[in-house]
């Protein structure tokens, strides 16, 4: 096997930096082919490290000059290797000056300084998280080195009229030869991963926001000329986020200016560089013609997320990359709350839980499982995972629910106050929450340290004579790589009890006095506990884990009729959906085991969904979610020896049974919703109606292909992208006559619009048809697809590998071969993207023997290649271990 994986970095090896950098002055002479970066660093030795040399990370830099306190160094006074510049210094403080040359134009890794866009609007920008700054200038590139930055940019004025770096503007002017300069001062000390610059010919929109502290902040969004007209929604979202963070968490913005820049060339969603956020255009641009409803909501969420990082990440940053979830889990939680307060709480919760189950539970169940705070990594880029982000947010959510809204706010205030301007740890976070609430939270550290998804087993017993209801809860976590034995975790189980008509029942535990509460948290702190409720007049229907109060797999053989009561009556919208989902999973399991779902339970399920569909008071988006059963990957989670074809067939049976049972009411509701006159409105209510209408259309056409003309008509008449794509998806999955023409018409209508064409690529990549792999391979030659563009790659190859289990797992191995070839090709271009795609093979041991062998062979084929990137070597190595 290739030996290109880096040696692991261990949490237990952490040492504070021997040298600190207090001030940084950077000067850039920008040029796409060869940029010169001059740096002046004021460095100070930690007195407890008298012998330590100054080690500056440095990658892919051409060193032109090196001076200490003005004197050029002799060769024996420093070492310049492939990853570091090491200087032997006898003094306690010094001024280090370096000059390096870098080549943004050929930087396809998209880390460090690189070029984006094409032709006239090709511009320069940076991406430094996690370890990109070392590709710009030699520096101790670790998050616990916080410095003040002054940055001067020089460039050709005609090609790069806009020059930006972090912080407040501090002068600009013209130079000889058609060049110009601009200087920026960031008064807030920051780690190098938050550095950013942008230079190019971009257009801008401007707005302004006055903070609760009275600071007048100029807000700018910059984008390529053809995109600037689509930035208005993002600007509105930014102002909503700024106000919300003040009102909900007391956090105000702290510079005179805030910039956002859009790029089509980005490996992730967006980046929170101080005062200069960079966004993947996918999460910034929106208009009714070119963005879906989901697109609008994603812009709201991501603009919020990056803005909220200004406190949770920037003002208080991470001591080391093991603490990544300290900023990411907390910021995802804040983003979730923001969208929940502004749009629909129930819908956001359902979507988050679906993502957790699909992406995080599967990660936890395979060789790439790791704790929310990993204790080792060999390539940090591979730890921007569902575990660190989504499970991390669940841990914050549990703490918030245990402390209550006010207690959590007090704790968070304390955390920001104590750690402002510092690089903190998970322990610092828990300590602040503890202190502000006078509670002990140390048992929660185990949630951060232990990988794997706990299973929560529930069983119940009702004693009518004693009017007593007993609920027994037990937890178990299966071993994960490197963690054979698991400990019990604190699990907050929120419960309510109902009678069969949905009336609340008291929740008094044995031995308690006082009035009964309507909903309460049962703390499961050990492996097993029984909770005994008294004065329960009838056999109750229990609503467990309300709002999904802990990230566990609930195993509970609830009576189907009880689940139906919950679907009908639960006053927690999430748990109504949760009950419907539980019932559909049960039906799926029956169909998989015996070819057909149990007729009686199927009847219970379809009847309760029929009632939901007929209920005018119910949020249409919630009804739509109830009608959409889990994807095949999520349904197969927990199975062994998976046969993807059998999973597909069983899922389709359940889906079709529902569509057929509800055909008439679905058609009627589709008709009612079709009269809407708000085709271009983006408020949550209008979005919810479109969501339900598209769910009805899909089911109606599934039940009876003779209804496909409805989809064709919707496609032809659509006045927004959500309706157009919804209809196109139905035509494609039914392989309807006219589907090809519709695809072509769509591509022609949106020619040249990269983001919309990405959705067009995705729609084709996720079709569970036999020939999808050949079709996807052919699409890589389409003019809308470039291997160097991560959005294109994720839209086509990523969607195929990660969201189309039927086609990816085609029994002849063609899907595996195609993806492994793509991974190899991408590894020479954008290793981060190649590594992420390779995770599609991570679950190989859970498939039936034939697929298992085929997937294993592709992993071995990748492992045997020469010169794998450290990113890919890490994923392949851990997958095979
Ligand atoms: N901190 C960003 C995510 C991010 C991470 C790495 C990147 O480049 C390699 C880019 C962005 C966030 O959470 O939004
Ligand atoms: Zn983030």
Automatic annotation (TrEMBL):
**Keyword Protease appears in the UniProt entry:** yes
| Pfam families with a match to the protein in the record | DUF3458, DUF3458_C, Peptidase_M1, Peptidase_M1_N
Q: Its Gene Ontology molecular function terms?
A: alanyl aminopeptidase activity
EC number, as in UniProt? 3.4.11.2
Q: Which cofactor does it need?
A: Zn(2+)
Q: What class of enzyme is it?
A: hydrolase
Return the similarity comment: Belongs to the peptidase M1 family.
Which NCBIfam families is this protein grouped with? pepN_proteo
Q: What is this protein called?
A: Aminopeptidase N
State the organism named in the record: Dokdonella ginsengisoli
- Chain's gene name: pepN
